[in-house]
Each structure stands twice: as structure tokens, then as C-alpha cells.
Amino acid sequence: MKKKKKTHVPFRMNVLFFVVFLLFSLLILRLGVVQIVFGENYTREVQRTEDVTVNTSVPRGKIFDKNGKAVVDNTPLNAITYTRTQSTTQKEELDVAKKLAKMIDKPDDKVTLREKKDYWMMKFPDLAKKKITDAEWKKYDNQKFSEDELYNLKLDRISDGDLKMLTKNDLEVLAIYREMIGGYNLVPQIIKKEGVTPEEFAVVSEHLKELPGVDITTDWDRYYAFGSTLKSILGNVSRSDQGLPKELADYYVARGYSRNDRVGTSYIEQQYEDVLQGEKAKIKNITDKSGNVTDTQTISKGQRGNDIVLSVDIELQQKVEKIIEDELLAAKKTPGHELLDRAFVTMMDPYTGEILAMAGKQYVKNEKTGKPELRDFSLGNFTTSYAMGSAVKGATVLTGYKTGAIKPGEKIQDETLHIKGTPDKSSWKYMGVINDLTALKQSSNVYMFKTAIKIGGGQYRPNEPLHINMDAFDTMRNSFKQFGLGVRTGIDLPGEQKGYEGWTQAPGLLLDFAIGQFDTYTPLQMAQYVSTIANGGYRMEPHIVKEIRKPVEKSGEMGPVVEEIEPKVLNHLDMKPEWIKRVQEGFREVAQEPGGTAYSAFYGHTVSSHPTDYSPASKTGTAEGLYDGPKRQEFVNAGKEVPMTWNLTLVGYAPSDHPEVAFSVVVPWAYQDDPANPRTNTNIGKKIMDAYFDLKKEREEKGLNKSTSVQKVENIDDVQKGLAEARKENDEGITKKDQQ
């Protein structure tokens, strides 16, 4: 029998088996380490389910005046915030609120009655349960009451005595808690920023580990360097506890805003929200399945908003506001001026439309103290309208030229008009036979009346009815609109009004229209109107923002220009240049020649001894009408007759040959049939022009002179080339020689 051969495993196979054994051993060991030592960490990694990107606000852009002075800035504030996660419970939030209440002082003045009742039920659930009767519980069990109905029953039955159970500490906890739950998950909510003391900031910082979700940071608030100056036009920004305005929330959310973001809510802050808001910082929160934040990553730091440079000269603005205040207070001291409560001034560059100053003051009683005070009402320059009186006569004369009703130099008898069925109409004094220049200079009503009658195709015959074509209203209104009267000026601010058109039911009212006592206009429209005459017939779009610039962090410096607001011609008067020059001469005589209605102010030195060396041109206005101000209803309620009042106005520009500043002054309800008219309009007009040219001279002496507006726009046609061909025939009156 043969012997079996012994099987031999080659040595190399043994080595291979041994290596495999070692590898499996290492793998098992590694699995053990992963599972036992790092199992919890890796489990969390595996359970990561969501990356949540949160945008956090950055400071808004600054607002400067035309000379680089910061008008609106940001003030840094220490702030305490809270960020809740998806998994945070109400109990956890209340625990944090209770701990914070021991560290910070949080006023409870914003806590509502409903919030107190909700908190009372959270703190006293057993007592809240007893507010429901057994019968009502049975209905609830039988699904005859919903959860919400049951809750509302509890709310309704919580008495004042119940609420007295809440201590001062409870209310402070509630004040903190309401801020904590006011926003979205993973979005920081500001618990406190106004009045955070260094001690509070330090204590919270030291105990952050005990306060999950709480953090300390630096927030900002708007700082107005010049107090109330221009404040109503600068506008407002929503508070951190307000967030987006309810009526615009959907609009902003659709554009990437969070509901607790702060935004501009009025005027410049609102109009230029896109510019001022800035690029938000972006933070990515990585959460697990339970909603706990496992990691936070900064995607971008963000950048504060771009800066805005206004066309306003803040020094001039302050001077103008002080002049208005002084004149209002002086007028209020004299009898017959009880209804006077406001005055407005707009100053603009007639060649560029830049607003140099826009001031308004309103005399009101403080609701808390009951004492009178003057409040900023700059926005009234474009949000309120009034009958402007004779200041519009420049437009009437030019409309007369255009329609062929009158010719330059034409003489007309100034006499009392006796129109059947209508009260007699006359000028403020008898003037005899006068031409158009004298009519402007001495402010003849009759010259304008007879011009309007001719525009309407009528003829004046003493003691007979007046027959005119009612289409004359449209003719005159359409002509006035070319100057900016009765239409929106196009200013870059929201809420502009265009005024009111009177009801054209009688021919005689056309005569009132011709002297500015029928339709109403805004002070800004008056400034645009006189600018159109001043620059030779170009209606410029007014704008209060001059430039948009990139932000820089260095204090007192402005970044590079992003956008410069170019002058914009809205239309050119369809009138001969020599006609416009004729009215310009009339306006010059009003201010510079004896007998002119503004001569006593500018050259008679009745206002001040300041020499008038800037060659002004102007037109005064006085409009009589029933008082329609804020106290009108008091007269009606008392059964008293609503009194007649007088609006005082003044428009003008200087220098008369090469104007660089145009202005309007409007003083509504200045007095009530008072022969001692204080001439508030001309007083203000003289003083604001003195202020402008004094400031200019002072800066020139310091070497701070800048190019005048006329030099900035050497050929106004270049502003809007598309109009050049259409107005070629009219350019003789605005030649290069005239502008240099």
C-alpha cells in the first residue's frame, strides 16, 4: 500500500494569510475606535440635515451735505441678542429670560395687555384651567369647543386682580421673553441695545455659557448731527423691534429682507433705501435633525450701505431755518396773526435743479407740556399747497404773449372793473395807463384781468356780463404747467403733491386764476417756476441728492463716486427768448427800482442795514381767501364765521443777469385783514439772500470757492441733447455768452 504524501503549504501563502489577518485586526480595531471613542461626533455628522444661511444687518450708509459734512451718521451701540433654534422649547426660553432679568434692566413699557394675560396663563396654568367651567370642559371633550375657543375664554376671564399677581420681576422677564420670540429661528433678535450699561454688557459676557442662544454684539442707531435741521425730509428708519413696515413687508421679503430688518420708512431714508441698506453679512448655520446648531460659518462679512451726498448746503439750511423761526415768532407777537402757524423756503440752483436749502417751520403746541414750539416742517414745501397770489403773474404775462392776447410793451388802463353780477375787481391801488413792466413792478391786478379776458376771447364792457370761452381755463393751466405750476416737479422724494384746481363754473374765476387766487401750488413748484424764468425758459427737475458714493471707514472722508445725478430738463417754454427777457426785466424792477413791491425790502433797508449788492430779481404775492388751515373746524364747530386770511409769497433769484440761486417764500394765513402787515415774506426773502451771498463771500475769502452753477452747465442744451433740435429757434436767449 502506498503512503499518502503530506500536503505542504508554501511559505508565501502563510505570509499572505498572516497579512490578511493583521489587516482585519486593524480594521476591527479602527471600527471600535470610531464607534466607541468618536461615535457620538460621527453620528452628529451623519445626522446633519440642513444648512441655514442667515443674513444679518449692517449699518446704513451715511448722508452728507454738498460740502462733505456728515448730516446723518451711525452711532455704535452695545447690544444683547438672542438666537433660538428649531428645537428650543418655551421652557428653555423662559429659563434664559429669567436669568437675563437678573443681569440687565429691561423696561416693560412695551408689554401689551394681551402679552400679560398670555404670560399669566403660562405662570399659573392651574388657575387658568379653573377659568373654564365643568360644563365647558365637557363641551370641549365632546369637540364642541376648539382649542382656540377655549384659550380665548381663559383670556377674557383674566381679571385686573389676576394680573396684579405678576410681580415687577415677572414683567421684566416678560419684557425680555417677548423680544426673544419676536423673530425667526436662527435669526438674532435684539433683546436690548438702548441704554446697555458697561456693567450689563460685562456681566452678560461673563455668563454666556449659562445663557444658551444669548450673545453680545455691536448694533447701530441713526445719529442726526444737526438735530432737527431738515429732519422731516431726511426721514426715519424703523426700530429694531419694529422691523419691516406691515404694509410693505411682502415687498421687502420678496427682495431678500428679513422681517426684523430695519428699513427707511419715510422720505430720503425710504426713497434711497436700496442705496443706504448695504450688503448684509451672511452666516451659515449647520444644524442636526433636531435643529441644534452644530457649526457656524461666515460666508461674507457684508458692507455698510453706500453714502448719499445731498445738494443741500447744511450751513445755509441752518441759517434759513433760523430766519424763518425769528420771523414767525416776531409776526405771532402782533395782533391779527393768531392763525399764522407756518412758513416755507425753497432755494435751488436754477440751472441744475439742485436743492440748496428746503426749510419749513410750524408753530404748534407741545402735546405734553402745552407750550408752543416750532417744529421742522421742511416736507411741507412739496406736500402742501396754497393760493400764491401775484407771484404767478410772470406766468400770466408770458401766457398773454404766447396767445397773442398782449404784446411786449402794450399799455392797458388800470381801472376798477365793474362786471355785472360780480363784485368790483381792482388793483391794490389806482395805476392809470401802464405797460407790462409796470404791471409786474407794481403788481397790477387789472392788467392781468384784462389779459385773461383777451385770452378767453372776451371783451370788457363796464356794468355788463363777462362772456369768455371757458376753454381759456385749459389754455392758461396748460401754459402754467410748462413752468411747473399745477404739476409734480419730479423731485426725488415720495409724497409730492401737485396742488388743487378750482372748479371752473364761472367766467369771472378766470380773472382770479390770472392773479394766483384760484388754483393752489406748492412752495417747491413756485421755486421751479421762478427758476424756469431765471434760466431762460428751461424747467429743471429738482433733486435733493447730488451723488452716491462708496463707503469708506475713515472718519471725515467720502469714498469714490458711484453715481452723479445729472441735471435734467423736463421741458422748454414754447416762448420767444425776448419775451422771457422782458419778464426777467419786470422781476428786476420789482426788487431794484423805486415803486417795485419788493424794493423797500431789498434796497430800502427796512429789514436790515445789509447792503444789497447781488442784484436780485423777484415778484411778490398776496392771496386773500377763507382760512382753510388746521383750526378751521374749530370755527365751524363753534358756529362762528370762518375768517378771511392773507397768504404772503415771494419768488426771486440773483444775480438778475446770471442767476445762481432761485427761491420761493410762502407764508400761509399770514394775517387777517390787518393793515399792519409785517411783510413776513419780503423780510424772509431779503434775509435768506443775504445769508446765501454772505456765506459765499466768507468761503471765497477762505479759499473755499467752488464753481458756480452757471459754469457747471455751460450749455444747458447738453443736459438733454434730444431737445436741442426742437428748440433751436429759441436758443438766442440762452447763448454761450449769456452763460459765461
UniProtKB/TrEMBL annotation:
Instruction: State which pathway it belongs to.
Output: Cell wall biogenesis; peptidoglycan biosynthesis
PANTHER family from the UniProt entry: PEPTIDOGLYCAN D,D-TRANSPEPTIDASE, PEPTIDOGLYCAN D,D-TRANSPEPTIDASE MRDA
Could you tell me the Gene Ontology terms of the biological process aspect for this record? cell wall organization; peptidoglycan biosynthetic process; regulation of cell shape
**Locate the Penicillin-binding protein transpeptidase domain: which residues?**
344-690
Which Gene Ontology cellular component annotation is one that this UniProt entry carries?
plasma membrane
Q: Which InterPro entries match?
A: Beta-lactam/transpept (IPR050515), Beta-lactam/transpept-like (IPR012338), PBP_dimer (IPR005311), PBP_dimer_sf (IPR036138), PCN-bd_Tpept (IPR001460)
Keyword field: Cell membrane, Cell shape, Cell wall biogenesis/degradation, Membrane, Peptidoglycan synthesis, Transmembrane, Transmembrane helix
Q: What is this protein called?
A: serine-type D-Ala-D-Ala carboxypeptidase
The Basic and acidic residues compositionally biased stretches are: 714-740
Single GO term (MF): penicillin binding
Q: Which residues form the Penicillin-binding protein dimerisation domain?
A: 57-297
Name its species: Falsibacillus albus
Q: Catalyses which reaction?
A: Preferential cleavage: (Ac)2-L-Lys-D-Ala-|-D-Ala. Also transpeptidation of peptidyl-alanyl moieties that are N-acyl substituents of D-alanine
